[in-house]
């Protein structure tokens, strides 16, 4: 990681009045350098345009300022709410992709309990908690997906929110099927045939084939996605077949490199649509 100047945030004693508190700013150039250096090793697709929204529930304006800068730099919108009960009401009316709760805030523990209904199933909202030292034990027992101690470490927070964003992305892409037109090579029962790839998801592909492929047949697949160089490989099973030549194939085994390539490509296409 390259050298960078520290990100400077005024202390409470340096700020006069409530109105000034919400106007705290970073050394913008230093922050830009920090994030560029920190993300230098991430895949080039990492910061593809995204439409994600978060809510930060806190009255600790200095920490809120840190989080707004970090989340904004990751293309995640931020809504700030200082009252836990009002946050709960807004969450019942608005779609939020992730929530950050300051566990030092009075009423935060009750809010976390009320959020349990929003955190069940495949579309669960990631919950990130932060607190000072006195609530560390309670926070770790809360069932949150992620947590960190205040004052916020920028590096730790960036990695935490990167993991949270990946969690959101996996949920969104779980059932997403992307239309595509490309070739696919299929090996079935020692016979090779070519087909047209018509859609792809995390769990499998749909193809148009002139050959009949019985349901349950084991296959080996090779295909490339538009705009990508890596040839994806997978073992699959025929899940369904229609009379018009459309065949659905379910992935059974896929190498890690192919999984990463597929997820990055799907993410890019999803957030372009």
Structural notes for this entry:
- The structure is a single chain.
- By secondary structure, this protein is α/β, with parallel strands linked by helices.
- The protein has 2 domains: 12-173, Response regulator (Rossmann fold), CATH 3.40.50; 178-272, Thrombin, subunit H, CATH 2.40.10.
- The protein has 8 helices and 11 strands.
- A hairpin with a 3-residue loop joins strand 7 and strand 8 (204-208).
- Helix 3 (61-73) crosses helix 7 (154-173) and helix 4 (84-93) runs parallel beside helix 5.
Lateral arrangement of strands in the main beta sheet: 6-7-8-11-10-9
End-to-end Cα distance, whole Å, is: 34 Å
At CATH level 2, the architecture of the largest domain is: 3-Layer(aba) Sandwich
Largest sheet: 6 strands, antiparallel, barrel
CATH homologous superfamily assignment of the largest domain = Response regulator
Low-pLDDT parts are 1-32, 38-50
What is the highest CATH level, the class of the largest domain? Answer: Alpha Beta
Helical stretch tally: 8
For the record, the count of structural domains works out to 2
Run of helices and strands: HHEHEHEHEHEHEEEEEEH
CATH overall fold name of the largest domain: Rossmann fold
Estimated structural class: alpha/beta
Task: Give the overall pLDDT as a whole number.
Answer: 79
Instruction: Give the proportion of residues in helices.
Output: 25-40%
Strand composition percent: 25-35%
Radius of gyration: 23 Å
Number of strands: 11
What is the molecular shape? elongated
């Amino acid at each position: 990681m390259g050298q960078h100047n520290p990100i400077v945030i005024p202390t409470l004693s340096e700020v006069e009045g409530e109105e000034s508190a919400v106007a705290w700013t970073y050394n913008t150039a230093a922050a830009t350098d920090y994030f560029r250096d920190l993300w230098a090793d991430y895949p080039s697709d990492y910061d593809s345009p995204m439409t994600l929204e978060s809510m930060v529930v806190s009255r600790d304006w200095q920490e809120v300022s840190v989080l707004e800068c970090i989340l904004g730099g990751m293309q995640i919108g931020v809504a700030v709410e200082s009252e836990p009960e009002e946050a709960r009401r807004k969450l019942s009316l608005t779609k939020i992709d992730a929530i950050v709760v300051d566990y030092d805030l009075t009423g935060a523990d009750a809010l976390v309990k009320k959020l349990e209904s929003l955190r069940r199933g495949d579309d669960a909202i990631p919950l990130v908690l932060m607190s000072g030292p006195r609530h560390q034990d309670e926070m770790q027992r809360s069932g949150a997906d992620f947590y960190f101690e205040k004052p916020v470490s920028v590096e730790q927070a960036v990695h935490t929110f990167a993991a949270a964003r990946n969690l959101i992305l996996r949920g969104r892409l779980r059932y997403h099927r992307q239309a595509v037109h490309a070739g696919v090579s299929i090996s079935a029962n020692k016979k090779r045939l070519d087909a047209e790839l018509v859609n792809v998801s995390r769990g499998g592909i749909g193809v148009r084939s002139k050959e009949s492929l019985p349901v349950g047949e084991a296959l080996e697949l090779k295909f490339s996605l538009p705009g990508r160089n890596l040839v994806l490989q997978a073992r699959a099973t025929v899940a369904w077949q229609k009379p018009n030549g459309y065949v659905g194939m379910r992935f059974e085994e896929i190498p890690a490199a192919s999984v990463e390539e597929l997820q990055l490509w799907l993410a890019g296409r999803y957030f372009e649509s």
